Amino acid sequence: MPARPEETDLILRLHADASAGRGWNGVCERLAAFTRAETAAILVPGTPAPRMPPALAEALAAPDDPCGLRRMRPERVYAAADLPGPGAIPAPWALRALAMRTGAAGMVWLLVAREGADCRAADGALLSALAPHLPQAVDTCETLRRDRARATLHGQVAARLGAGWLAFDREGRVCDHAPHAARLLRHTARLRTGARLRPADPDAATRFEAALRRVLSGPGATEALVLGLPPAPGLVLTADAALPGAQAMGWLRTPPDAAPAPEPVAQYLGIPLSEARLALALARGLSLRAAADALGLTEETARSYSRQIFARTGLRGQPELIRVLLESPLWMTAPKDAAGGGGAPPPARGAGAHGWGGGARPRRGLRRPTEAPS
Fold this sequence. Notes:
alpha+beta; Beta-Lactamase
């Protein structure tokens, strides 16, 4: 038998909501309208509860399952009086509910509720018509939700490590970029989708244009450059079509905006918090005297702390301390203050604007220590 127009409309809206991956408002609003119900809902474990009157929410979405939704037989339409739990749907609400098994979420429930009048046989028929499509729709929605959450995590990892990407079309225009790429380039170049990347430094702009032309004209070509004076981001250009419409990719890397907070550094190295603050300062390339000044310590106290750091950790000097911290997972912790570095001192004269990773050249007349401060 051909589907009725309202059934077709509901099925289309169900799959549209699933493809959007952001809830079931569209199909539930139409289902409520077709059944003349005050509430229609799809209950999916592990997702936010849908909007419904508080009395119904307490009976249907409570953790202890008073109405026995988890004991419902799949594909059967239940009235309020038929629910297998000891709880009851509060008066004056009438209900029709149906359960289905899915691969992603386990059991899910589709229901309509009317206030002051019983549901009709046609209401249950609409639920039954929608039921065969519910498992696929829920699985699609849950897959998209999980993929979006993973993509968000991947973006957070890249942002915290100071990494990003740009995609260029065959004309050399930026056709796409990482969400945080503009922040990585904010002091270096103007970034706008559909336009060419314009490094602010004239020499860097010339080098970039020449490198991009070579990559776009040579399959398999790779070019590496810095987009200005240190600590400007580094960029590697590759002849990749990693995204639709892209002919080349640009892989950005800049020192992270903020150092780890001293608390996780203390935990990671097994040293007291006061020594962790000094370790962060030394890892930024500061001399012992500059680190003491930045932290408000006397040089003698800083010297004592530094001896304890290397004694406790077994590290053989400041270069090894820098390497251990830069290779650690501490950069994945969210800093307390993205601008100030979670308690680390600001860069002193002689350190780069970011001060991490050795990418910035020391100013003339100042050298970075090559052994443990003594």
